[in-house]
Write a structure and sequence with these properties.
- The chain contains 11 helices and 8 strands.
- The protein has a single domain, classed as Rossmann fold (3-Layer(aba) Sandwich), CATH 3.40.50.
- The chain is an alpha/beta fold.
- α1 crosses α11, α4 packs antiparallel against α7 and α5 packs across α6.
- The chain is globular.
- This is Alpha beta-hydrolase.
- One of its GO terms (molecular function) is hydrolase activity.
- Keywords: Hydrolase.
- It holds the Pfam family Abhydrolase_6.
Length: 284
């Protein structure tokens, strides 16, 4: 289990008495409140929304290891009492990989005491960096350590990301202030073989209790390299796992298009025009 230095820190929106519950998991150098727009929209739809800080991030403590497996283990208490059963999980970047790892280490969600018969949890992963080459990983290390050592101001974030609100930028600034360069270095060292494609192959006992969608950033945007490529998940596609691209989105999909995230969290990919289906991306 996670050592005693780890303290679970969870932000909430909506009513705890709601019959619908959602879990949102952020990415590297962010904090739980980065989900504020998605969370508020879900709360308006009747969801009780919880968002934890990942170990080493925000107000959470750290863990002895920062491997993806250790991150998942640290969050695993969220899936038992007193926390509710989650009908919906949305996760971004590092949080998305952590969610995939959770699917391999948790009992099927349908076994939760509060789960109705034949229940299924909807999971939406946003631009997960499933594979990073050693060169790409070192570039990520350099950029993230730079952000932690010299956090950009909210004004700088807004200048670089015109679709962000001031609140988006302020929470991102806080995330960079609260994480240390040492934490980033440990996280990347503990995941030095950054290859998680195999996590798309769900355990047999989990396959009937989840419906999984992966949304990637727009690969056609100049100067913006997406973290996720549809072909990485292609061998694993099935009726319960599908993929798509959010047109016009960079890596921060939930900050740029929160309404698209919410829409696709609540519906199948083919029920909206904002996202192109995997079949439309065969030329990638």
């Amino acid at each position: 289990m996670a050592p005693s230095t780890f303290t679970l820190s969870v932000a909430t929106w909506g009513s705890p008495s709601s019959s619908k519950n959602a879990l949102l998991i952020h990415g590297i150098t962010s904090v739980a409140q980065t989900w504020h727009r998605v969370a508020r929209d879900l709360a308006a739809q009747g969801y009780y929304v919880l968002a934890p800080d990942l170990p080493g991030h925000g107000m959470a403590g750290s863990t002895q290891s920062l491997s993806v497996a250790a991150l998942a283990e640290a969050l695993s208490p969220l899936f038992s009492a007193p926390y509710p059963r989650f009908d919906l999980i949305i996760a971004h970047s590092l949080g998305a990989i952590t969610t995939l790892q959770l699917l391999h280490t948790l009992p099927p969600f349908s076994q939760h005491l509060a789960a109705p018969a034949d229940s299924c949890t909807r999971i939406l992963l946003l631009d997960p960096p499933i594979y990073q080459s050693p060169c790409a990983l070192e570039l990520l290390r350099k950029l993230c350590i730079q952000d932690a050592a010299s956090p950009r101001s909210a004004a700088q974030h807004m200048s670089e990301n015109p679709r962000w609100t001031l609140e988006d930028a302020a929470w991102k600034e806080l995330g960079e202030q609260l994480i240390t360069p040492e934490t980033i270095d440990r996280l990347l060292n503990d995941n030095s073989n950054w290859s998680f494609t195999h996590l798309f192959k769900l355990p047999p006992d989990m396959q009937n209790s989840v419906y999984l969608t992966v949304l990637g950033a727009d690969p056609h945007l100049k100067d913006h390299e997406p973290s996720f490529r549809i072909e990485e998940a292609q061998p694993y596609l099935n009726p319960r796992l599908d993929t798509g691209i959010v047109r016009g989105a960079t890596h921060g999909i939930h900050r740029e298009f929160p309404e698209v995230v919410v829409e696709h969290a609540l519906h199948r990919l083919d029920e909206t025009k904002a996202v192109s289906s995997a079949e439309d991306q065969t030329t990638l």
